[in-house]
Automatic annotation (TrEMBL):
This protein's name: GTPase Era
The protein's role, per its UniProt record: An essential GTPase that binds both GDP and GTP, with rapid nucleotide exchange. Plays a role in 16S rRNA processing and 30S ribosomal subunit biogenesis and possibly also in cell cycle regulation and energy metabolism.
Subunit structure: Monomer.
GO cellular component: cytosol; plasma membrane
Length: 301
């Protein structure tokens, strides 16, 4: 009796810190993080279980003005995630300030009529209390359905425990929705693709990160106890292929080494990872390629 459970969707503009906060709350890395815009492409569930309750936190793509077909899908997923949520956790970025994209987020959040908490992120960089208070007032004025607001640093953990406690209190009474040792609703195959993409984001610059997709061909547990993974890194232009491969294969080797290290930690298994680079022209404008190379098929069902 008194156990709480429910769904909380994180919403905000791109690069506001949603994935960093999810990882902090869960205590493990389940969502990839980078300084590149539109890093998150899928609705990823991070599951937090305490003695008082269980929260399914959904990390969502940043709400933005889409520039291509893939961008339209991302906004559709982010806005669609609002439906079925018991509570929204809106995130704004103190360091970046209130921008046009925050107003776009407010438009969708306000029309949803779903109860919301507001998290002011990156408070660790605030120079004065007065400037932080002024920013908080501006942020609160944007959103109509905010019940409480919190000052946090997702990266450093400031204010995160209090935020989690208040979220659990706000949720309805209900049973556990997942076993207590489960921390994400995503498959290992999905996680493998995201880890590979994260390493591409981390190691490459300019237009490469945004035009990269990953397709897992094989994901097999061998009798030897080794997890065999074969994957394609997909780019849009022929000129991008040698960048991913690198001089004498140095870049793709580095991507593979770093991805395999993360996979072995997450899957608790030896991993044999085989990577290839494929060119698919304008894949971000083609529905079948978008769903294959971004794992969006299940998000849109």
């Amino acid at each position: 009796m008194g156990f709480k459970s429910g769904v909380v969707s994180l919403v905000g503009k791109p690069n506001v810190g949603k994935s960093t906060l999810i990882n902090r709350l869960v205590g493990e890395k389940i969502a990839i993080v980078s300084d590149k815009v539109q890093t998150t492409r899928n609705r990823i569930g991070g599951i937090v279980t305490t003695e008082k309750g269980q929260v399914i936190f959904y990390d969502t793509p940043g709400i933005h003005k889409p520039l291509h077909r893939l961008g339209q899908y991302l906004v559709k997923i982010a806005v669609g995630a609002l439906n079925g949520s018991d509570l929204l956790l809106i995130m704004v970025d103190y360091e970046d300030g209130i921008k046009a994209s925050d107003h776009l987020v407010a438009k969708h959040v306000n029309s949803s009529k779903i109860p919301a908490f507001l998290a002011i992120n990156k408070i660790d960089v605030a120079l004065t209390k007065a400037s932080l208070n002024e920013f908080t007032k501006k942020a609160l004025a944007l959103f109509e359905n905010v019940e409480k607001h919190f000052l946090i640093s997702a990266e450093k953990g400031d204010g995160v425990d209090e935020l989690l406690e208040e979220i659990i209190q706000r949720l309805p009474e209900g049973p556990m929705l997942y076993p207590e040792d489960v921390i994400t609703d995503r498959s290992s195959r999905f996680m493998a693709a995201e880890i590979i993409r994260e390493k591409v984001l981390m190691l490459t610059k300019e237009e490469i990160p945004h035009s990269t997709g990953v397709y897992i061909h094989d994901f097999q547990d061998k009798e030897t106890g080794v997890l065999f993974i074969r994957a394609d890194i997909v780019v849009e232009r022929q000129s991008q292929k040698p960048i991913i491969i690198g001089k004498q294969g140095a870049m793709i080797k580095k991507i593979g080494i770093l991805a395999r290290q993360d996979m072995e930690y997450i899957f608790d298994s030896k991993v044999f990872l085989e990577l290839f680079v494929k060119v698919r022209k304008k894949w971000r404008e083609k529905d079948n390629f978008i769903q294959d190379f971004t794992n969006l098929r299940e998000d849109l069902e």
